Structures are given as C-alpha cells and as structure tokens.
Amino acid sequence: MPALNKVADIIIRDKNLTKIIPFLEKEQQKVVDNLIQRKKALEIELETFKRKRDGYNTEKRTYAENRDELNKKRVDLLKKAKDLREERDKANKEVKTYKDKKNELLAELSVVSKKVDKLKDVDNPDGKDINQIKTEIDRLKFEQQTRVMTIEKERGLVKRISELENEYSQRKREIEENEELKSLLNNYKNIRKELDQYNKILSENISKAQDLHKEMIASLKEAEVVRKEADQLHDAFVDAQKKADYYHHKYIATEKDLKDLDEIINSLNKKKTYSKKERGEQRANKIAESVFENFKRGEKITTEDILLFQRNYYD
After folding, report:
1. Can you tell me the distance from the alpha carbon of 104 to that of 30, in angstroms, rounded to the nearest whole number?
2. Do the Cβ atoms of 181 and 120 come closer than 8 Å?
3. What is the torsion angle, in degrees rounded to the nearest 10, for the CA atoms of residue 166, residue 167, residue 171 and residue 177?
4. Domain for residue 303, yes or no?
5. Which domain does 208 fall in, by range?
6. Max CA distance (Å), the chain
C-alpha cells in the first residue's frame, strides 16, 4: 500500500495533517483516472460481446431456417414415399387379381384344348392334326426355296406339298362342318384372346409396381440424406445458440460492471467536490471567528478581511 506508506511518512515527518489532504486528493484522482480507463476498456469489451452475440444469433436463425426447410422437405419426401407405397401395393394387388384370372383362363383353355383334341382324334383316325399338316407344308415350301435339288426331286417335293395342301383343305372343311368342334375352337380362340389381354395388363401392372417400388426407395433414400443434413444444421444451430448465450451472459455481466463502475466514479467525484467545499467552509469559519473576535475587541473590519473570508470559503 504505497500511498498509505507515503501518507504515514508525511505525518511522521511534518506532524501536519493539512499536508495530507492534497496528497490524498491526488491519489484519489489517480484512482478515478484508472477507473475511467477501465470503464473505456469495459465499453470496448461490451461492444465486442454484443457484436459476437448478435452474429451468433444471426447464424442461429439461418441454421434454423435451413434446418426447418430441410425438415419440411423430408416430410414431403416421406409422404411421397407413403403415397408411392400405397400405389405400389394397389398395383401388386391388381397383379395378384390378374394372375388368378390368368390361371383360371389357362385351366379353362386346357379343358377346351383337351375336348378339341378328343374330337379331332375321332374325326382323324390317323391322328394327324391340322396344325401339324400346316407346319409340314411350311417346312417343305421353305426347303423348296432354299435347297438346291434335282428336277426329279423337286417335282416329288411339289407333289408332296400339293397332297398336304389338299389334306389340309379337307381337314379344314371337316372342322368347319363339325359344329361342336367349330364351337370349341371359337371358344378356344376367345379364351386365348382374353388370356393375351390379361397377360398384357398383368405385364403392365408388374412393370408399374416395380417402377413405383424403385421410386419409393429413391424417395426414402433422399429423405434419409435430407434428415442427416437437417441434423447437421441442428447441431450447428445448438452450437451457435450456446455461443450466443455465452456472449449474452458476458454482455450482461459487463453491462452490470459498467453500471457499478459509473456509480463508484460518480461517488468518488462527489466526495472530492464535497471535501473541497467542506474544507473551504471550515477555513472561512475560522477566519470569521478571528474577524469577529477582533471586532469585539473594538478593531475595525477591513476590506482585506472580507476578501480573505470569501477567498477561503469559495476556494
């Protein structure tokens, strides 16, 4: 405590209390000056804390907006995936329905086919089917067009083709004249046509279900990617929130310190002013008492006495 040590030295050396007062006032002014410098430093810190707090609050809001936007996108993607799943399940249900119908038609076609074969066997004891005859004709014609052969062999081939064509025409007429067989064949043809339609619809629905499934999986994967991005933004938001809170608390504490410091500085300044006034009053009172004593003794009060009183009172 250097200041007090100096004061003590003055007291011991001079035995005069009046010399201590200017020294204490000087030391008090140094304290006030240091406090003012500290106040300026705190004001700079306060502005720094405010700027950082506001900066992190801005970052926080940006992170929150982007996060909320991604979360909304994720919700939309999940809804899209849900709708696609429902469409896919509906398509798969239709696939099952068409498969069941196809199996029914195949069973019906098998029954009709067996009846047709049975009638053909009755009307065709040698067992040669009209379709087999047609296939044989086509094969021989192809051979005639593509193979090199002698004239004699080619004539024999042409003769055989002619015979098969006659046989084919005869079998065709027999079939057309057989009402039962004709009805069965028409029924077979209609079932075959309906079966082809179901096969086409079935294939379309299978393809549709597969496409919907792929699109659903793609939406779910995208939703997962978006979720991870949103989580990263949320982590950044929380970090910015913590930093903003930290600097806000620092700001509030510094603001309180500044307020307390102002009160201390103002208090010291008031005490300094009051001390000067009080000392002036004390000196003026002593001079007034001295002048009054002189006056009681019959001495005159001079202009110099009055000026001395005023100078000491207002000093």
Report:
1. 109
2. yes
3. 40
4. no
5. 2-293
6. 186
Nearest to 35, CA basis, from 272, 245, 213 = 272
**Domain CATH code at residue 38:** 1.10.287
User: To which residue do tokens 């103002």 refer?
Assistant: 266
* Cβ-count burial 160-176 (b if 16+ within 10 Å, e if not): ebeebeebbeebeeebe
What would the two tokens of residue 288 be?
A: 């007034």
Tokens coding 304: 């110099």
pLDDT tens string 220-279: 999 999 999 999 999 999 999 999 999 999 999 999 988 888 888 787 777 655 445 455
Integer Cα distance of 1 and 7 in angstroms: 10
Going by C-alpha positions, the residue among 301, 274, 299 that lies closest to residue 288 is 301
The amino acid sitting at 275 is S
Report yes or no on 285 lying in a domain: yes
Among 30, 10, 52, CA closest to 245: 52
